Inverse folding.
């Protein structure tokens, strides 16, 4: 049996989701735009689903996902 753990950061870029969240809240820019500006969510993209879930659950009803094909 394989257990899947929830990611807390983009491991490729070493960027924590909480850091992306802070910028998104302060700037009201799309999540993926901010993530990619920081170098996250581009290399292997394994973090994208967890990152979007983490941030969207903390945005207090705002939707700032931006355009995504994930």
């Amino acid at each position: 049996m394989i257990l899947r753990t929830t990611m807390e950061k983009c491991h490729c870029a070493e960027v924590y989701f909480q850091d992306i969240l802070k910028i998104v809240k302060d700037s009201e820019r799309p999540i993926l735009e901010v993530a990619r500006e920081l170098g996250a969510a581009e290399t292997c993209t394994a973090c994208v689903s967890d990152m979007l879930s983490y941030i969207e659950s903390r945005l207090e009803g705002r939707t700032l996902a931006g355009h995504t094909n994930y």
Remarks:
- The longest helix spans residues 17-27.
- The chain has a mean pLDDT of 88.
